[in-house]
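pasting Cytochrome c oxidase assembly protein COX15 for the record, 380 residues
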Amino acid sequence: MANGAANSGLKLLVTKGPQAQKAVGIWLFGCAAWVFSLVILGGITRLTRSGLSMTDWKFTGEIPPVSNEAWLLEFEKYKQSPEYKRVNKGMSLEDFKFIYWMEYAHRMWGRALGFVFAGPFAYFIAKGYVTRQLGLRLSALFALGGAQGLIGWWMVKSGLEEPTSEYVQPRVSPYRLATHLTSAFVIYCGILWTALSVVMPDPPTGSMSWVNGAAKIRKMAIPVSAAVGITAISGAFVAGNDAGHAYNSFPKMGDTWVPEDVFCMEPFIRNFFENTSTVQLNHRTLATTTLLSVAGLWLAARKIDMHPAVKSLIGSTLGMAALQVTLGISTLLMYVPTSLGSAHQAGALTLLSLMILLTHTLRRPSSTLLKSLAAAAKPT
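structre below
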C-alpha cells in the first residue's frame, strides 16, 4: 500500500499512464533480449572461427552472394587473407559458405537491432510517452549501438593483417575483442537497467526494516557486480589469445598450480594481457574470487532482515554463479567445444543480468515512499 501511495510523487520515465509504461517496458526488455542473443551469436561466430570470412565492411550493409560466380568472387577475396593462407588453405567452397553465413548473420542481426530500437523509439516520442531524461538515455544507447558496428569492423580488421611471425596464426587483437565485448555488455546492461527503471520506478520495500536491510546488502552487492563484470571481460582475453586451449586441466594448470611461463613476457602489461598462461590464470583466479564473493553475499543476506524477493534473488544468483563456474571448468576440460563455449558465454551474461536486477532492486527508494513507510510505522 505504501508503494501505491508513493507513486504520485515519483518522477516517472514514461508519461501517459500505466499502459504506456507497459508498452515501453516490453519494448526495452525485447531489445535487451535481442542484444543478449546478439552476444551469444557473436560468441558462436568466434568459436567456429567464422569472424574473418568477410574481408570488407560497408556502412549500408552487405548483399550476400546469390550466384555461383558471386560466391567464387567472395571466396577469392578470402583466399587473399592471412587466415586462409595459414589456417584454411585448401578449404572447399561449401565450408567457406558456412563460415561466411555465420559472420553475415551476426552482422545483419546487429543491424536489424538498430531498426527494432529506432522504430518504436520514434513512435513513443511522437506519442509523448518518453520523458526528456529517458529520451537522452536511450539516445546515448542508440549512439553506442551504432558505434558498436564500427568497433566490430575495427576488431575484424586486425585479424586481416599479416601476423608479425610466420609461426603465428592470424587472429583478431585481444584488446579489440575485449573492447567489442565490453561495449556490448554496456549496451545490454544500459537497456536492461532502463527497462527495469521503467516498469519498477521504486524498489519493493514493505517496511523500514527491509529498506535498512537492503541498504546494508547494497554496499556489498555493488563490488560483487564489478567482480562479475571484470571476470566476464577477462574471458575476452582468454578467447582473443586462444588461452582456453593452453592448459586443459583443473584445478592445476598441467602438473603445477602456477606454470613457469607465467609472467615471462616483457613488459608487464603485455604479459598480463597477451601471455596465454597468465591470461588463463587471471581468468581462473577472477572466476574463483567471484564465486566466493557471491557466496559471501548470500551468507551475509541470511542474517539481515530483507524483502523475501531480494533474498530469493540472491539465492538464484549464487546458483547461477556455481553453474557458471561448472560450465567454465567443463569447457576447459573438453577443449572448448562450441556448444559448451557458447553456453559459458551465455552463463556470464545471465549472471551479469541477475546482478543488474539485484542492484536495481536494492537501490534506495524515493523520498516520497520513505515518508509513507515512516508514517505507516508510527504507532497510532
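The mean pLDDT is 92.
The chain has 13 helices and no strands.
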